Amino acid sequence: MRLRWRNARVVSCGLVAIALLAVGAWWHLRERATAFDHAAWSTGDSAGATVRLRMADGLVASHALQGKSRSEVRAMLGPPSTGGYFRGQGDAYWLGPERGYVSIDSEWLVVHFDANDHVDAATIRRD
């Protein structure tokens, strides 16, 4: 009888581990950075928010904006979002609700320009 309960626990633990690995793989694929697509970036709807977050991850990780002029950035991303967040810190683009189980804040792509009006930093920030 003891052996049967032990085997049942081993099988149960194995199934839980497989389920956790599957959820982790799904989450990783869903949240990974993706290549920039102007049309998808421009949609601006709530369904596009996750896509925008993933594209911003790709832009920051690849340093794709580094050295671009302000006019090149605005041609690529459009005009910055309006509002008071990150005023004086560069152009801010709303990406969507923050990632995680409890989304209280928003995530933003903040593009900072040097004295010559070229990108010297791009970061993802939360408000």
Automatic annotation (TrEMBL):
Pfam family of the protein (one): BamE
InterPro entries: BamE_dom
Domain of life (superkingdom): Bacteria
Residues in Outer membrane protein assembly factor BamE domain copies: 66-121
Protein name (database record): Outer membrane protein assembly factor BamE domain-containing protein
Organism annotation: Noviluteimonas caseinilytica
Upper lineage: Bacteria, Pseudomonadati, Pseudomonadota, Gammaproteobacteria, Lysobacterales
